[in-house]
Amino acid sequence: IVKDYASGKLSVSPMMARTPQGIALLGAITQYDPSFDAINYNARAQTRKDFTSGKAAQSATALNTVLGHLDTLSGAADNLNNFGGVATPLNKVVNPIENAFGDPRYRQFDNTRKAVADELTRVWRGTGGSEGDIKTWTDTLNNAGSPEQLHGVIKNIGDLLQSRMDSLSEQYRKGMGTAADGLQLLTPKSQAILDRLEQKAGGSSGSSASQPGVASSIHPGAVQMLRQ
Fold this sequence. Notes:
Elements: H1 2-7, H2 20-32, H3 41-53, H4 55-80, H5 90-100, H6 105-126, H7 131-140, H8 147-176, H9 188-203, H10 207-210, H11 220-227
Helix pairs in contact: 3-4, 4-6, 4-8, 4-9, 5-11, 6-7, 8-9
């Protein structure tokens, strides 16, 4: 009961200060949470409502959802198996040829990129971000980019989404009027995704492009077209 009052789940009534039992309960609440007082109760109750069923809760859910889709985009970037390093320009030659031969990877990447961009736009608009940022990211996410470029941009988007989460967490902390850490809004799944994006951004080497016999990883039909 003390925890519920301290978090704003239960309402503090002015009558509580007029009975011995109420005074004892208020003392227990203050002992449990020294930052609590009857004045900031309303702010806590409003904050709790916002983060359980209001706009803040919706924003946190949307941000976690976008992170899930960003993970899908990262997988689509891996599937491109693009060249990196000094061989990156080959992607602009090879990829259109493979696409013309019906390779589905490029359309899958472009469709996933568009879906992520659309959802990012909605989320960014709802959390006060600039839609111009979205256009900059999507322009950079070209299917002819190197693994380093693609995963670097995807990681950057993930970092900015996490920054939005941190801002929401700070908003919760201030609303609750406590010096304690803010609410952890990232789900364990989203945290695992961020860790994975970090690892990929640091580990993308474009190894197929840096070794001899680079054409061996290109589809046979595309190789024949290049030779002709």
